[in-house]
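Note to self: keep these together.
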Amino acid sequence: MEKVNNLHSENKMGVMPINKLLISMSLPMMISMLVQALYNIVDSIFVSRINEYALRAVSLAFPIQSLMIAVAVGTAVGINAFLSRTLGEKDFEKANTIAVNGIFIELMSYIVFALIGILVSRPFFASQTGIAQVQEYGTVYLTICCTAGIGIFMQTTFERLLQSTGKTMYAMVTQGVGAIINLIMDPILIFGAFGLPAMGVAGAAVATVLGQMVAALLAVVFNLKFNRDIRITFRGFRPNGGLIANIYKVGIPSIVMQAIGSIMTYGMNLILEAFGAAQTVFGIYFKLQSFIFMPIFGLNNGMVPIIAYNFGAGSKERVVKTMKSSIMYAVGIMLVGLVVMELIPSQLIGLFDAEATSELLVIGVPALRTICLSFCFAGYCIVVGSVFQALGNGVYSMIVSMARQLCVLLPVAWLFSLSGNVNLIWWAFPIAELVSLSMTTFFLIRIHKNIISHIGEARGTTV
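Structure:
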């Protein structure tokens, strides 16, 4: 038993220099997330070649797709933070049990969304648009994504198990392979090739779930073969209510925080319905911004287990240095995104403008230039929100997200829409981000005083 403990005691998250550790943990995830963002963009580019209604349908599907990802990722965030902290405390048997219970609740979540896909898809689209073709495209697309969505739940879970033990390179491989499969299969299934029929929008959905399933299978294999910090077995398994509650203690705020984004997107689509192609422009923006935000999420995926591990190990200095370095990198990435969107908005929109309609450019150019002003503060807010989660205080992130999107962004957008000027609506985004900046800083000061400044004190008194 002593041998096992010595083997685990050299975990790089407790000893490697922070900047080197953060880059080694985050860079693979940032690259894989960039690839994911790329295939999301390419997916929409291919769909736009069918027609503008097909692109709009895929955009309108985003709230439920986002909600499904929110539950998968949010639960996995809870697993990751709880598992990393437990490993930092050297309780390896408990870590194994956490992993198995996490897999179980992710499977239960998939079953719920499969039912949503079957029962809710058609009325969901009917509530957002009266255009029959958009409704039909969207119903087919969303039903496939939900009912065959087991891949996203298993992929997310097993990748986070790899991340929680510092094996981010394997997680990068799984995400990269899934993205490449999606990219290859998109044009084949959408337009028909190699003897396969043209499936249109349904082909885009099938390509997506196929990529997720392959990535999930790879992640399972990597965990079983290479992740020696965790032993996964369902022999004699019974759900452990206490451990599941602890997973959701961090996971539910993360789920709610991301689910709020789904509500915001749905609300914005309802507001924008009266402004012609504005719904499509809003969908295009979300595809483009994912290319900027995904690297930040990759950075967070590397940062969270480092902070959680060193929090459990009682190393305040490493927690603080990780947080500061992550903020610096995130702000730099977001500033690059800001410059790109300000300089070439028409070229970015042109990627999705299959029919070369001037309406998309007239609405889209000022939209991108206005919304991207929020990037100035978003990197800081996203990273600090993940710090809250890693320290077991995800409720702070949830409060900030609710205030930003539900209490500020949607009401301001609705008020501006009453003017009849769609260009005013986009200003709701930078206004909401200013509120997020203020609240995030307030909570950071609070959590530093109550938690961060006391890390290691109890451990220090026992030495």
